[in-house]
Amino acid sequence: MDSTHSGDSSGYCRTNSETSAFSEQLTDDFNSCSSDSNSPVCWPATARSPFRPTLSRFRAIGHNHKVEKEDKLNDQKPTDLELDMMKERFSKLLLGEDMSGSGKGVSTAVTVSNAITNLYVSVFGQHQRLEPLYPDKKRMWKREMTCLLSVCDYIVEFVPASQNLQNRPSMEMMISQPRSDIDINLPALIKLDALLIEILDSFQETEFWYDEQGSMSGNSRSGSFRGIPQPQRKEEKWWLPLPRVSAGGLSETAKKHLRQKRESANQIHKAAMAINSCILSDMTVPHSYIASLPKSGKTSVGDTIYRYMMSTSRFIPEHLLDCLNISSEHEALELADRIEASMFIWKQKACSNYPKSSWETVKEHMEGEKNVVLAERAEILLFSLKQRFPELAQTTLDTSKIQHNKDVGQAILESYSRVLEGLAFNIVGWIEDVLFVDKSMSSQEEEEC
Asked: Its domain of life (predicted)?
């Protein structure tokens, strides 16, 4: 398996229902969040001169180490082993994961994307409970993400600006500024990162605890597992620890706290998913994917779906999905690939008369045209499919875009939003497990009474 998709976090659904305007609003909405001085919220902003920010970021790392030294609980500087590990990782980053040095490694964009994904797996891969991160894991995440994100400080675009000179007419010149997609989305992602860490930190003292599934060890405070409700989770996730509550259940304060954090994590998940969808849609479709497509969208999507999409005046995707009777996520992913391929073919045919126009412009000029209608209905059907299967892995088109992407800025934004999406999704699931066990325990008590 490609390292871009390693870990449970890399296979979550993406929807196209949100727009980039949502991510712009996030920057204002989350400005009021509180965090400690070392949180990602306090990292240096990207809107600065492109010739100094990286140095500022590394100064920030040194400052964090100084604060950690003064902390009574963390009174040691990073060990030589930690520094050697960082040197090794960034050496591999520069070599494109090709240790021979022959220049046969992957592109810089893919290397950075893999680095962020693998860092997430190293830090959060074994974190499967509602509890704060270990301090060393938290420091590792902040330190290495600071270094990886520092690349964005040098990704700029040149724009015209007028400059007023003394006793001379104003003159126009080109100045550099952070690239618009990075300037909009990166601060929002940093805020989301900080909020997720804060949610985990809020579960330091809880009224619930965890037991490993199937464990009958003596340290289980529940005594016996017989009659204890089990969260409704799928068989393939047998390794996840099970939450437990006392016989009296959770207090109202604890349940209110859990619901609030679930809502916050759910909103963060939607925000990260919207940003990720926006970045993926802007990525260039690789020629290898285009070459693999059939000539006809009907061939890709199949006769049954094609006839339904063509024969009805009012398209109801939920009714079509019910008729297809999809029984597993594997079948759902295969169907998503076929629908997305057909959608791309129909869009290509519709845009053939307007090669330099956006899809929105083409829809306005060719409203009601057969290929436009089919592409729109395929997009609606794909969205409904992903809503029905929220843990659906990335489609072939998305993975192909990531693997062949050459834009470092897009690689950072896509991988960062993807891992945050996965973490938020996990937190929502963990909270729902606790609430389910508490509700089931209360129901059992009422029945016994």
From this structure: Eukaryota
Query: Do both 105 and 145 map to the same domain?
Result: yes
145-173 tens-digit pLDDT: 998 998 898 898 888 888 777 777 788 88
Check if the beta carbon of residue 377 is closer than 8 Å to that of residue 312: no
- Same structural domain for residues 190 and 326? no
Residue 446 counted as domain residue: no
Q: Which of 442, 262, 297, 287 is nearest to 382 (CA)?
A: 297
Q: Measuring CA to CA, how many Å separate 366 from each of 308, 354, 369, 377?
A: 22, 10, 6, 15
Does residue 151 lie within any of the structural domains? yes
Domain extent, residue 378, equals: 286-404
In terms of domains, do 36 and 115 share one? yes
190 touches 237 (CB < 8 A): no
- Which are the contacts of 371, defined by CB distance < 8 A and separation ≥ 6? 297, 346, 347, 349, 350
pLDDT for position 418: 96
pTM, entire model = 0.75
Position 224 in a domain: no
Tell me whether residue 221 is in a domain: no
Residues 6+ apart with CB under 8 A from 176: 50, 156, 157, 158, 159
Q: In CATH, what number is assigned to the domain containing residue 330? A: 1.20.58.1310
Exposed (0-12), middle (13-18) or buried (19+): which is 167, by Cβ within 10 Å? exposed
